[in-house]
Amino acid sequence: MTLGRYTELPHLADLNAGIEAVWLSVSSREDTYRVLPDGRCDIILKFTIKRRPISELTPIVTGPTTGFYDVPLEPGTGFVGVRLRPGYFQKILGLEPLQLRGGGLVGDAALDLCPGLKALCTPALDEEELVDRLVRFVHKRYAESDFEVALLSRNIMSALHASGGRLRIADVASMHGVCERTARRVLHRAIGLSPKAFASIIQFHRALRLLRDHRLSLADAALEAGFADQSHMCRVFQRMGGFSPARLPEVTLVTISD
């Protein structure tokens, strides 16, 4: 298994079970990792690889955010995580995303609210065992949960993703035969964010990929991503990423499904 700053393990993703991505990160030096908003919730195990078996494990549960935050890294510190599809957080952990909006739970705080996480914190031989344990945990919780992700919320999220975040919630509601108020309420409960915030995150990530992967100019990327103009895109980048689109830092673009 390749260890690095941030590595996704695509063969372990299972959208049907709510697993959008499984990822692993191990730091070899003192550093800072910038986390960009993606509108998702993650279940994470923090560990140290200074000795084997791995015994110093800290559970972390993160909620949806609308802005970036920096994580300080120390040599030998690692993280393994499962990023859940929007709407599946309550099915897997029995919590509504609204309970964690803009923040997260670390250590005892995570265990107090989600006692089932304690089973993840027993010693492990290596990182691969931690990955396997975390994936099995999510699959087990999915199979045992009676909670069903509302079809309407899934359809609304898919429509917003398909439009690159450009559709208005009123138009999405009309497409699915419900009033705007109902669409807002259903989406807000499922993901812990307003439709506008969720759409802005989708738009931000689309613009990032257009600039980094497709090498579009700032003006063309702003137009293609649906921003009012280049200045509008620059303001969103500063708010969500803390950087200018004209000077993209080395950022990791996570997998985001519809």
UniProtKB/TrEMBL annotation:
Q: What Gene3D superfamilies does this protein map onto?
A: Homeodomain-like (1.10.10.60)
Ranges of residues in domain HTH araC/xylS-type: 132-251
**Which SUPFAM superfamilies does the record associate with it?**
Homeodomain-like (SSF46689)
Query: InterPro entries this protein is in?
Result: AraC_XylS_family_regulators, DUF6597, Homeodomain-like_sf, HTH_AraC
Q: Which UniProt keywords apply?
A: DNA-binding, Plasmid, Transcription, Transcription regulation
Query: Which GO molecular function annotations are given, in alphabetical order?
Result: DNA-binding transcription factor activity; sequence-specific DNA binding
Please, which domain of life does this record's source organism belong to?
Answer: Bacteria
Q: What is this protein called?
A: Transcriptional regulator, AraC family
Species name: Sinorhizobium fredii (strain HH103)
Q: Taxonomy-wise, where does this protein's organism fall, top ranks first?
A: Bacteria, Pseudomonadati, Pseudomonadota, Alphaproteobacteria, Hyphomicrobiales
